[in-house]
Amino acid sequence: MLYRLPQTLAIILTFLLILAPSIFAQGQWNWPEKPQNLQVFPSDWSGQRLSAPMRGFTRALGVRCSYCHVGEEGKPLSTYDFASDENPNKERAREMIRMLGSINDHLKKIEPSAAERVNMWCHTCHRGNAKPMTLDEELSAAFAGGGMETALARYKELRENYYGHGMYNFEDEGPLNSLGYKVLEANNLEGAIKIFTMNTEKFPKSGNVWDSLAEAYMVSGDLAKAEEYYKKSLEIAPWNDNAKKMLEEIEKK
User: Which residues, 6 or more positions from 126, have their beta carbon under 8 angstroms from its beta carbon?
Assistant: First the structure.
């Protein structure tokens, strides 16, 4: 009996074939005639047929073969043990493929709102990133792991490497503002002021970021600076009731 690939997986593979760049140019590499240990893809696939989705995965996640397979980056692909399951990312990748197929099957149950039906692909979430986290999540993880300076270094690194690629939203004040409050809650007033000041430089027309900077100065006891920046916030956002309230508090003091 001829094995028929599920329609969802077939669509995914067709897309990956179109998307996939030639990234396997590590010396002379020939795909094996009979790949071993295939569990998600049909067991009778040839190596040449398997090459397209493998290349597509690396493109979607921004990784190389060693991310999922047993092998050392920079070494010839002939030294890799592609059949091995020792690398835990390989099983994660299998489950992600199964999950993707399941999501697309569920999407078929939804009446589309336009002529083109929505499909999920690997790059829908990953967008060239192996671990698809938001900028806010990246900064939170960096702060939890190494503190403020580590988080700021991570922000700089991500901005230099990914700005304009659509992976992270650098056009939103939220991630840096959230980081500022985490630092403030950790009683690092100087650090919080530094981050909030950075955010006002990046988003000078946002009343919210000036309000946050004013709050940090308020907590530090510098009422003059707090008053200055609450007033700045009100100039930009006259509806900012919090700024009005805090200015009243400063006046009482």
Answer: 60, 61, 62, 132
